[in-house]
Amino acid sequence: MTxxxxxxxxxxxxxxxxxxxxxxxxxxxxxxMIALVSEGLAMPPAEAVAARAGVGxxxxxxxxxxxxxxxxxxxxxxxxxxxxxxEGPIEAADWRQAVDILIGxxxxxxxxxxxxxxxxxxxxxxxxxLREGRARLVKxxxxxxxxxxxxxxxxDAELVEALDLTLxxxxxxxxxxxxxxxxxxxxxxxxxxxxxxxxxxx
Length: 202
Hints:
Layout: H1 10-38, H2 46-53, H3 57-63, H4 67-87, H5 95-120, H6 128-148, H7 151-154, H8 157-166, H9 169-178, H10 183-198
């Protein structure tokens, strides 16, 4: 007969409690950073982040040794939040409908990412974590696009590159911030461009 497991020692419970509190504080700090950046504060000072998170300034510096650590925390939260939009499976009657659904999802995800990416591109930001995150986003966009395209399109290298550019975050950012087109209008532009590129494909 197997002996019942021993209850955790008091010291272990203390350690577990501290770890849970630290993880909760880390998440609050990351969420505070995301909220401040989304509100237009490109590089929030640590004091503002601590105040929004409801923690002490020392806690911020204790849990995040540098800004890259905080940026990686932001990326982890955003990846989980947007994973279904950027990389989730697409159910469609055919590949053309799948492309249309893909555009709608990207429009929703890109709009959430827009203020965060603008902050990441700030000249004051020199972060390896942000560069790595951008590379992952670009790869995820391309991989998802290739999944929904039929072989006749995938084998046309120029067409794939044109579609990848057309449906990229950079195109969305240009439409929204430089051409000042609203969300519905920007989404319609992407759909029209995609249809024009794919016109004539069987």
